[in-house]
Each structure stands twice: as structure tokens, then as C-alpha cells.
Amino acid sequence: MNSARITVAAFDFDGTLTHRDSLLPFLLYAHGPANFAIKMTQASPVLLGYAVRLIRNDRAKERLLRGFLDGHPLAEIEAIGARFARDRLPAMLLDDAYARFLWHKTQGHCCVLVSASLVHYLEPWAKSVGFDHVIGSQLASDEHGFVSGRLDGGNCYGEQKANRLRAWLGAREAIIYAYGDSRGDREMLQMADYPYYRSMPREVKN
């Protein structure tokens, strides 16, 4: 086993690499404006409960996803996710953040996307631009391949981000750069050698 330390650049997605959240645009893309408006109206009690902190982040997210995706084949969600990644995600990117990702690539660093958003659209986008690995939230499906909106393994948020990144690293020693913009990134930033909160430096010394 190679004991040399690797250098890892761990990027949050929503608000860090992008100028906005990506989940609602994905649901809009998947359902169209009319159905999206109906389902958002139906979800308004859940969203309000989350806004006033009566409902936890993970529970609110699963209830929102259940309202939008319950009964849909996982293969259909993944196909829509691939099209959304191609058609919509590039326009959401922040130029300076994407430049940081490209800088890490030129340095030969291992780039990992660590997000609470769904892997079903993150993975095709990340693969297309050269990320080495994606850690994110994944929809659970039943034996027939249908989803309910429940998340397999829970919402990749907060402590889960750090735990999943550690699990992926395993026994490998790493120098970690981490980029985030919210409370959900705190634990991942705390484990980094070079944490960047809402900032994208032009240069980083090795």
C-alpha cells in the first residue's frame, strides 16, 4: 500500500460552487412549472415548519422529496438528473469557485464533491468536469426500482459530510482543502488543513 499522503480538495456544491440551491431547480425541471407550483403549495406547511425550526433539515427534505418523487422509477429520476446536469447546472456555477476547482486539478489534487444535494444529478455533472469522487444524498428505491423520497443513508449534511469523507479516505493520510458556505459544511471545514468558508483564494501555497 502506498503510504504517501494525498492532497484532497473537498467542495460543497450549493452556494459554494453555485450561486444558488440546486434541488428546487431540479424539481422544477423534472415536473414543469404547473406541477411544480401545485406541489410547492402542498409542501408549504413543511417548508414553513423548517423555516421556523420546528422540523429538522433531514425530515423536511425527505417530506419534500416524497411529495415530488413518490412512486417514480429511479431510472427515470436518473435520466432526468443527467439531462438537468447537462442543461442547467453549468449556468449555476460561480466563476471563481469553478476556477478554484480547475486550479486543484492542474495541481494533481484529488477533487471530491461533498453535498447534501442528490447524487442523481451531481454525479453526471461531476464526472463530466473531472471530479474524482462524489459524496451526496441518494434516493432509496424498493425492490421494483421505485422511489418514495426517502434518502438511503440519510441526508448528507453537517456531521455526515465529514463522516462520509473520512470513510472514503479510509486509512489514507491526506492534506485536505475544504470549501463551504453554510452551517452544513462546518464539520467538513473543521477536519480540513486548509478550510475556506465563503471564500475562493486566487492562490494557495503548497
From TrEMBL:
Keyword Phosphoprotein appears in the UniProt entry: no
SUPFAM superfamilies recorded: HAD-like (SSF56784)
Gene3D superfamilies: HAD superfamily/HAD-like, SG protein - dephosphorylation function
GO molecular function ontology, one term from the record: hydrolase activity
Membrane spanning residue stretches: none
Signal peptide: none
The UniProt record lists the keyword Cell division: no
UniProt KW keywords: Hydrolase, Magnesium, Metal-binding
Family annotation (NCBIfam families): HAD-SF-IB (TIGR01488), HAD-SF-IB-hyp1 (TIGR01490)
UniProt-listed PANTHER family: PHOSPHATASE RV3661-RELATED (PTHR43344:SF13), PHOSPHOSERINE PHOSPHATASE (PTHR43344)
Name of the protein: HAD-IB family hydrolase
Organism: Candidatus Accumulibacter affinis
